[in-house]
Amino acid sequence: MKPNQSALTKLILAGMALGALLLGGAHSALEATNTQRFCASCHERDASYKEYRASPHFSNRSGVRAGCPDCHVPRPLGAKLARKLVAAREVWAQVTGAIDTPEKFEARRMEMATREWDRMKASNSRECRSCHVFEAMSAETQKPSVFKKHVDAEAAGKTCIDCHKGVVHNLPKEYRDPDEE
Ligand code: HEC
Ligand code: HEC
Ligand code: HEC
Ligand code: HEC
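Above: inputs. Below: predicted complex with heme C.
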């Protein structure tokens, strides 16, 4: 009985060690692909990075910065993994040079932005809300007209991306604000 038991124990321990190793590997891969530097390694060649560097999310009076993954990569593990799988297409698009000139980037911007809007709409702008919450907006310091907009928006079940498109990047030239039509 005894020798068997210890073999089983060893097997379990070995299994746990292997599991930890694999999980550790997956975890560091997730971490490594979640840095601004990783995104910039491709995107500093296109407009997205330049526009970001000129936006208040890069530099502002409070010195709090949002990086690319803060807005584009979900934090909950399931959603994060799903997004990473979809993002594998970006590697392929990079290899095939889908956006490697300003002209190609602009030609694809509407399509890319629309996919991003759909994701944000579907998640109720979850990534925006990891930093901004309606409840934390101050009635004293936010302009009254804007504060009212936000209170009404919350009540009407609207989400950030409904009103704040183009908060970092230039809007696609094909985009038309529905309120202006
Ligand atoms: C290997 C190069 C590469 C890396 C690294 C990379 N991207 Fe991309 N990304 C691309 C390419 C190429 C496209 C254009 C995809 C297309 O044409 O469909 C793209 C498209 C996008 C889009 C538009 C999404 C869509 O559905 O069309 C977003 C947003 C984006 N990238 C954000 C990021 C963020 C955030 C990171 C870092 C976590 C990142 N990218 C890392 C190459 C890359
Ligand atoms: C990592 C935290 C973070 C995330 C995520 C984030 N923001 Fe911000 N946002 C900030 C900070 C910090 C400022 C600048 C505050 C200041 O001016 O001191 C800001 C400023 C703003 C402003 C006012 C300045 C401007 O550019 O008009 C708007 C609007 C805004 N954010 C909307 C959004 C939306 C929409 C999203 C999601 C797509 C988002 N934010 C995601 C932190 C964040
Ligand atoms: C019904 C439309 C609407 C919705 C929904 C909405 N906003 Fe706004 N927001 C505005 C308008 C209009 C302004 C003032 C003009 C501007 O800065 O774009 C504004 C301004 C802001 C500002 C700047 C405040 C200041 O004092 O400078 C921030 C930050 C902001 N919104 C964040 C958000 C976030 C985050 C969400 C989602 C939780 C959100 N908003 C949802 C309409 C909206
Ligand atoms: C504060 C949130 C925020 C940050 C930070 C941010 N983005 Fe975006 N990004 C958006 C939103 C929102 C869209 C959808 C289109 C729009 O409204 O401008 C978008 C769209 C894009 C697109 C599609 C093309 C386009 O112009 O619409 C790419 C590519 C992209 N982002 C890459 C990046 C990269 C790379 C970084 C970091 C250098 C970054 N983004 C930082 C919010 C953000």
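The pocket of heme C (ligand 4) is lined by residues 39, 43, 48-49, 52, 57, 66, 68, 70-72, 109, 112-113, 116-117, 165-169 (CB under 6 Å).
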